[in-house]
Amino acid sequence: MVNWIGIAAINMAIAVALGAFGAHGLKNLVSLQQLEWWHTATLYLFVHALGLLIVGVLIRLRYATQAPAWLLQVGIIIFAGSLYAMTLGAPRWFGAITPIGGVLMIAGWLWLAISAFTIKPAAAK
């Protein structure tokens, strides 16, 4: 089984590091629009990393399957990754894949919601 709690913690560490880099290292190197992309990417990375931590705990407690975790993680990579890439000089068309990451994150949360209504914990079975 994948250690989603560990992956979530790594995501949070990356979010802190990239947030600090954006606030201090990029300020004078990129446009205001690019800095906004960076901040949006960092916000979504951090919030969804925290969510992934919760999902990891729910998986260990057998309240959820791994599917929401995979959807969230891939969504984080595509959503935040595309925004980071555009900030660092990738072509603007790269932003066309950003919504795919958002849709995956939404799907992850919806899958978790469905799981919450349908999966009973091992002790309750």
Automatic annotation (TrEMBL):
Membrane topology: Multi-pass membrane protein
Subcellular location(s) per record: Membrane
UniProt entry tagged with the keyword Transcription: no
Cellular component annotations (GO), alphabetically ordered: plasma membrane
Keyword list, A-Z: Membrane, Transmembrane, Transmembrane helix
Chain segments annotated as transmembrane: 7-25, 37-58, 70-90, 96-119
Superkingdom of origin organism: Bacteria
Record-linked InterPro entries: DUF423
Annotated family: Belongs to the UPF0382 family.
PANTHER family documented for this protein: TRANSMEMBRANE PROTEIN 256
Name this protein carries in UniProt: DUF423 domain-containing protein
Organism: Psychrobacter halodurans
Phylogenetic placement of the source organism: Bacteria, Pseudomonadati, Pseudomonadota, Gammaproteobacteria, Moraxellales
